[in-house]
Automatic annotation (TrEMBL):
<protein>
    <submittedName>
        <fullName>DinB family protein</fullName>
    </submittedName>
</protein>
<dbReference type="Pfam" id="PF12867">
    <property type="entry name" value="DinB_2"/>
</dbReference>
<dbReference type="InterPro" id="IPR024775">
    <property type="entry name" value="DinB-like"/>
</dbReference>
<feature type="domain" description="DinB-like">
    <location>
        <begin position="24"/>
        <end position="159"/>
    </location>
</feature>
<dbReference type="InterPro" id="IPR034660">
    <property type="entry name" value="DinB/YfiT-like"/>
</dbReference>
């Protein structure tokens, strides 16, 4: 198994049921529930030095989901162009998330998640099987959809294990 396959599998293994489209909805709802209970002050919390603040983490989820949406769309439509990777640390540093209101970041996340749900729920099942190349790795549109779910759950686990107990 390649490093990329291991990377993908660690996220896919976090999806608690076979109905990944329902889990997409659930993980979004859970994210909104957690962030809706935070104050502005709490949203600027990081559990350790050099770790993202909660606002940065939320915008990271939105940024990653946007990029994954584009890859899903491109591959589902048969685009065979190599798509670039992205540096999540660079994106976080350039996001200025901590200068924004938590409510704005949360609204953005909810709109992006709704857009993902519509894209994935209405996509042709055969088109979701299409494979493309992103960051030098072959992957199907459907697997990227599942990665949105697993990636979100991964960060929810971190929030629950490392952030919330210290707030």
């Amino acid at each position: 198994m390649s490093d990329f396959q291991k990377y993908v599998q660690r996220y896919l293994d976090l999806i608690p049921s076979e109905n990944w489209l329902e889990e997409l909805k659930r993980s979004g709802e859970k994210t909104v529930e957690i962030y809706s209970k935070l104050s502005e002050e709490q949203s600027l919390f990081a559990y350790a030095e050099e770790k993202w603040m909660l606002k940065e983490l939320l915008l990271h989820l939105s940024d990653t989901e946007r990029i994954f949406q584009y890859r899903i769309l491109a591959f589902a439509r048969g685009d065979q162009n190599e798509l670039p990777g992205f540096d999540e640390e660079l994106y976080a540093k350039q996001s200025f998330a901590n200068e924004r209101k938590l409510s704005s970041l949360l609204e953005e996340y909810q709109l992006i998640r709704k857009s993902s749900q519509i894209l994935l729920e209405t996509a042709n099942s055969e088109a979701l099987k299409n494979v493309g190349s992103a960051n030098g790795n072959q992957i199907s549109a459907e697997t990227i959809g599942k990665l949105i779910v697993g990636h979100n759950i991964h960060h929810l686990n971190i929030i629950e294990e490392r952030y919330l107990p210290k707030l």
